[in-house]
Each structure stands twice: as C-alpha cells, then as structure tokens.
Amino acid sequence: MQLNEMAEGLEPLDLTGTAEFASLLQSATDLGIPHSPGVRYVSRQTVVGGHRFHFLEWGERSAPAVLLLHGGNQTAHAWDLVSLHLSDRYHVYALDQRGHGDSEWVRDQDYSPQTMASDALGFIRQQGVESPIVMGHSMGGGVTMALAVREPELPRALVFVDTGPAIDAMNEGAQEIRNFITANVEFDHIEDFVQRVQAYDPFRPREHMERTARYNLFRRADGKYVSKSDRVLHNPDRPMPPEGQRPTLASVGVIGCPTLILRGEHSRVLTRERAQEFADALPGGRWVEVERCGHNVQTQNTPGFLAAIAPFLAELG
Q: For position 241, what pLDDT does the model report?
C-alpha cells in the first residue's frame, strides 16, 4: 500500500492541495526557507527505455530547467525543500531513478552509473529539456558525472553534492552508508524506521524525518513497512560497478561547463583533498564546504545548501 500521494497514470496529479504539501510548507517555515506562495507542483509518470519512471515537476515550463538526481536508497522527495525554493525561477524535475522511490524496479538488476545516465539522458530528451542545470547527490552525482562525460555539451551547469570520481567505494563513510542500507529493509512500525534514521543522521530534526518517512516506505500485505528501493540494492554481497564504468579524474576533464562541488563539513565520504582534486580536474570547477551537515547536505542543512548554490546560480544569469 502506498503511503504517499502520486499520479496513477500519465495524467499529472496536482499535489499542492494535499496534506503532504502542507507538511512540506511547515518544514520550510521551521527552517526559514523562502518560497513562492503559488508554486506549481505535480506528480507524474512516464516510460523511458521500456521502464516506468515517476518524477516530480515544479515551477513553470517556460523557466530554465533544473534536473535533480537523488542518492542511493533515497527518492525524488529528498529534494522537496530545494525544489520548493527554486520553483519560483526554475522549471525543476526531480526524478525517482530506476529501482528507487515510486519508479519501477528493473528486471535485469542493472543499476550501473552508465545505465542510469542513459535513463537520465532519455528522460531529458523525452521531456524536451534544453541545457539543464543538473544536480546530483551521492549515487545521483555518479550518474550526473557519467551523463556529463558522455555528453559534455548538454548541461548548462552542474552541481555535485558530496561525491567525486576518486571516491573509494570501501572508504569509511561509503561503507557506513552501505551498512545502513543493507541493514534497514523492513520494519514493524514506521516509528522503528524513524528511530533508525535518527540514530544514523544526527543533523536533521526528528519531526522532519517523521514528515518524510512515507516517501521511503510502502506497507506490505502482511502489515510490515518495507523500503521502496529494489531488494538487490540492499544485498550486502552486491558487487560494485566495475572500475571502467565509473568516471575517473582523467575522464571528467571533458566537462567544460560551470561546476560546483559541495562537501558536507562532517562528511566521511568526500574529503577536502578529494573535493579539491575534483575541482582542479574541471576547467570550470570550484568547491564549497557546507557547515553543520554530513554526506546528505541538501537534507541535513537545507538553508546552508541553498546559501552555497545561490551565488553559483546567480552567476549563470
């Protein structure tokens, strides 16, 4: 059973009149995040490459486009506060990537960065998006990298959130994330899930975790609350993508557009040294550290995230 509102078919579903949207506005008020009072916000479904994808669409279609790609075991709703804030001047697409959120699990279990980049490119073309600003967090950052290396002329600008090409998949922070994902699959009560997240994430207020838990879980026929992401992604023995499928410091040099790299002050995934190396490898690269957060920068310190991207977006015009 679905716990959140979503479009059931190809017709968009307006979410602005829902209790979920009211909850989001309360979180924005709590955090002091400004937003337009008359925002357009819909849930949509589409099919790309034979797979069904769910996505959230914010703002007016005539505005410059932004594509948001979430991290592993997360959903498009991880960007809700960011999308709400940006929607007064951008046309924002937040995609539930394959095997995550309310998008379809894939039968071949291929969740490599290159394949997911093909999904994103197919989605961009299908929606008629031109020169998007692409922002990717963690796993979504790897997808963004693969997309930009393959078609460096496509994005207008890029934002990488706490990720880079030189991340060791077995470094301490990455292993902590992997352990959390593999250990948290099903729960007797939503409260059990919230308690696990609270123990793992000391930065987000508990009430915000409670408001967003519905996006990460569905209720199974036996009454248990179960993670939405594909079971293979929770398998501790699942192999990492081969080295040849992951962008390297040498390969990202083809990316010439303005690029911002954000690192969480307390991140155990992206070190300052790796952030600097990444920025140095990009002709238009720079990096900024966001205080009072770890790996999940945009949810753990949303005001700090927005303050960090504001000058970068302003320079784009």
A: 67
